[in-house]
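2 proteins. here.
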Amino acid sequence: MVELSVLMPVYNCERFLDDAIRSIRHQTHTQFEFVIVNDGSTDSSAEIIARHANEDERIIVVNGQSQGVTHALNTGLTYCNSAYIARMDGDDIAAPERFARQLKTMRTNPEVGILGTTSILIDERGKKIGHMAYPCDHDQIVMKLLNYGCGLTHPSAMIRGAVMHRLEQYQSKTGASQDFDLYLRASEFSRLKNLDEPLLHYRIHDSSMGSTSSAAQARAKYCSVAKYSRRNPLPSGCLLNFAHQASWMTAEEGKGKEALSYAVQCIKHSPASYLGYRSVARSLYTMVGGSGR
């Protein structure tokens, strides 16, 4: 059994997939299995994956039926039986020393359950356009998550197999924030950490998750935080913030009735705050046909 499994879900990533796969194949740490789940791609992704699989026996190809990223991840996890699981996406690029650096840290810090890295932002052509830095300390990462921030980049994450086994699988029903939910649940019994090293090139483009599903992410995050708060009571202001984001962004999608349900939660969490009543007004305006923008 190899020490490391790499898990990559793929859906219509033909423009960037070759570079993503090559960045994994060319890691300085070479002992791993590479599980690629093709989630029913309709472009040439399947052909690109097959070509690489023919060249590299470490690649395990799993074919899905376009059931979403969460289902693809959970399917791929059934093929991962290693001590560590490294996440990767089909449009990003891993630095050559990523696995070596992360494994070194995980081996010497058994309390760490999930380890991420900082990221270099690149555009569709691979040009550097920025840098994403994250807190390195567990408490700061959790605080960032609970303040509606991004505490750890999913495609940079290395997850301890025992932690993933305890978590069982990704839980988010929408698939829009399965990483956020995973981090919160893992933080209850293990430590989160980031390496202050840019070991991932994170690509920003029109089809990336962050640019297409902010409302779905907001709804899923609120559900995750509400569940977390039942086990670890949070200040009402924290829950209010997540409910408000879910309500407002859902109204922006034109879903007034659903937005109203989150607005009601705002008032329940903090009856004295104007945000709940503002969200109710926004939701009702959407329901009667107004854009409210």
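next one coming up
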Amino acid sequence: MKIDIHVHVTPPDIIRDWKKIAEKEPYFKLLSESPVNKFATAEQIVEAMDKDGFDKAVIFGFGFQDMGLCRYVNDYVMEKAKEFPEKLIGFASVLPQHPEVEKELIRSVEGAFEASEKCSPRARVLPWTRLKRWRPLAHQLRP
């Protein structure tokens, strides 16, 4: 079985309005303006998987600073993972430092995500001392 474990999907309206969103999301802007960036909907991913011989893909959105955008894209990922269950495995995207992160992760797991988290690269700057705050959440999310 051939599985791509890192695939970003983007809802069509975010693809259309990415420049407007990028005005308020600097890291999203940086990545979106890259000459190697290619936005893709879930349907485009499934089509590319079939063409390139992939059986499954782990899909997720982007860890926006705006938790409303994270929720919106997580909803899209959940919807598409349910639409293509034989092909797509959904992960939630969050910004770990956001005060609503725990609520969104719980909502995402309850929404039938296979996995609970895809953190923005900014997660790498979290101090180790903050990891204690994740213990109660990890116990709650444990199957």
